[in-house]
Design goal:
Its cofactor is Zn(2+). InterPro entries: ArchSynthase1/Queuine_TRR, TGT-like_sf, TgtA, tRNA_ribo_trans-like. The chain is an alpha/beta fold and 506 residues long. It folds into two domains: 348 residues, Queuine tRNA-ribosyltransferase-like (TIM Barrel, Alpha-Beta Barrel), CATH 3.20.20.105; 125 residues, no CATH class. 41% of the residues lie in helices and 17% in strands. The protein has a six-stranded parallel β-sheet. Strands 16-15-14-17-18-19 form a six-stranded mixed β-sheet. Strands 1-2-3 form a three-stranded antiparallel β-sheet. α12 runs antiparallel to α14 and α17 crosses α18.
């Protein structure tokens, strides 16, 4: 199959893209959410899902294959007719059932199940991979990864017409195995690359590990491959998953949670019985209110909750797309990270890879918002520090100041945490137009000090003085010994650069 995915805009590792699905005759705008459809339990009709924003959905080919009620209908009518859905339809192979019930209960042949997926009109099919759980030892993870790769290679040799092929990337929680699996999967010529076996991590709120698994897989896959994060169905995780470079998410959560009377929000999950007021303006909430939903019979309540859950989920996908479009995806991630400590863990894990995010990050965006200590670790800050060596410094004695200019120096540069120093002429260029709080946190000051260090090391012949607003010793101590420091006074004026008062580093 020729390349079917095009990236149109980047924001860090997040991207707006388009995935051509030739068998369905549609182009899917990514990031995109795929609702999971169980043929036996259709809480929300697929046609209604399309009305809510679904461009594609995912269903289980193995369940259809084993179903007495739907197998023959699927073969005769085709999936699109069976589900009354005009978008793209993805089929899974039954690997999840295999991981839950084992070989003794679930016997699936890759050739047979892929041929079945093709015969029922699937637009994107999946071979039988082995989802290795997080607790598996390395030997098991490597062995099962090898089996998965063999099955992907077998699948690519089949004649499957225009049906696209998923190539799941396994490797458990071993980053090097995930990276190798990504490279091997990409080399097969498959089309879409699901990061597999992360459901146990997501179910246990181990978002940092899920981020590490995704980024490791992407290192092997390269920047051009479309990536599906299996099981990322809660809307509070979409921004984080997109920022880690994932393009497709699938959600069974909308229905599973509704079955238990749980109400999704972008900040978490609420039990319907605990709600006096509904925080969502969707049609379901506007029509019923909390009391009205609670008063419905069990079947009607489940359906209405499922539809609400989809409304919230698709709204968040649109919000993520717009954030990438305007270049403030990480601001959205940061907002979501304040909803749950484990999402914050995931965000911090993402920022551990700021160097990788910076490679595809757009150089110009809307204003940078410094919102917390994590903002100091963003790729824009790293990029600025790397570029300091290329900026010309005029004069032998230069003031780097959080306050005013001073004519006693040859030149005065501005200092704005977390970026650090820059020529005043660049004050209106991104990201130095950043919106920063007046009460600067220590993490931002330490980041700014790293910028001072980078500038000083690139210009050893220049005598630099840093005029600061009472930075902590943790920020000042790592500065080069020849960088003098002085405290700014209430009037923002800096004393003569030869004065001893308030000056260190001599």
């Amino acid at each position: 199959m020729t390349d079917v995915f095009e990236v149109r805009r980047w924001d860090g590792a997040g991207r707006l893209g388009s995935l051509d699905v030739p068998r369905a005759g549609v182009t899917v705008e990514t990031p995109a959410l795929m609702p999971v459809v169980n043929p036996h339990i259709r809480t929300v009709a697929p046609a209604r899902m399309a009305d809510l924003g679904a461009q594609l959905l995912i269903t289980n080919g193995y369940i259809l294959y084993e179903s007495e009620d739907y197998r023959e209908r699927a073969l005769e009518e085709g999936l699109h007719e069976l589900y009354d859905f005009d978008g793209a339809i993805v089929t899974d192979s039954g690997s999840f059932q295999l991981s839950v019930y084992g070989d003794d209960e679930v016997a699936i042949d890759t050739r047979e199940i892929l041929r079945f997926q093709y015969d029922i009109g699937s637009d994107i099919g999946t071979p039988v991979d082995i989802p290795t759980p997080p607790e598996a030892d390395r030997e098991r993870a490597a062995a099962e990864l090898a089996t998965t790769q063999e099955r992907i290679e077998l699948a690519t040799d089949l004649e499957l017409g225009e049906m696209l092929l998923n190539a799941p990337v396994q490797g458990s929680t071993y980053p090097d195995l995930r990276e190798r699996a990504g490279a091997d999967a990409r080399a097969t010529g498959a089309d879409v690359f699901p990061v597999g076996a992360v459901v146990p991590l997501l179910n246990d709120y181990r978002y940092a590990e899920a981020v590490e698994a995704s980024l490791a897989a992407k290192r092997g896959l390269g920047p051009a491959a479309p990536v599906h994060l299996f099981g990322a169905g809660h809307p509070m995780t979409f921004a984080l998953a997109a920022a880690a470079g994932c393009d497709l998410f699938d959600s069974a959560a909308y229905a599973l949670y509704a079955r238990d009377d749980r109400y999704l929000t972008v900040r978490g999950t609420e039990h319907l019985a605990d709600l006096d007021h509904l925080p969502c303006p969707c049609p379901v909430c506007a029509e019923h209110g909390a009391e009205g939903l609670q008063a419905l019979d069990e079947t009607a309540r489940e359906r209405q909750l499922a539809e609400h859950n989809l409304h919230v989920s698709f709204a968040e996908v649109r919000r993520v797309r717009q954030a990438i479009r305007t270049g403030d995806l990480l601001e959205l991630v940061e907002a979501r990270a304040r909803s749950h400590p484990t999402v914050l863990d995931g965000y911090r894990a993402l920022l551990d890879h700021a160097d990788a995010l910076e490679r595809t990050d757009a150089a110009g965006k809307d204003a940078f918002f410094h919102l917390s200590a994590e903002s100091a670790r963003r790729p824009e800050v790293r990029r600025h520090h790397e570029r300091l060596a290329a900026l010309p410094v005029e004069g032998e004695e230069v003031l780097l100041s959080e306050g005013d200019t001073n004519d006693s120096y040859d030149e005065t540069w501005r200092v704005v945490p977390p970026f650090g120093p820059f020529p005043r002429a660049l004050s209106e260029t991104y990201p130095l137009t950043a919106e920063v709080p007046q009460r600067t946190d220590h993490a931002a000051q330490r980041a700014a000090a790293r910028g001072v260090t980078a500038l000083a090391e690139a210009n050893p012949e220049v005598a630099f003085t840093l005029a600061h607003w009472d930075w902590p010793e943790s920020a000042l101590a790592p500065l080069p010994e020849d960088v003098r420091t002085t405290l700014l006074g209430p009037d923002e004026a800096v004393g003569d650069h030869g004065a001893e008062d308030g000056t260190t580093g001599e």
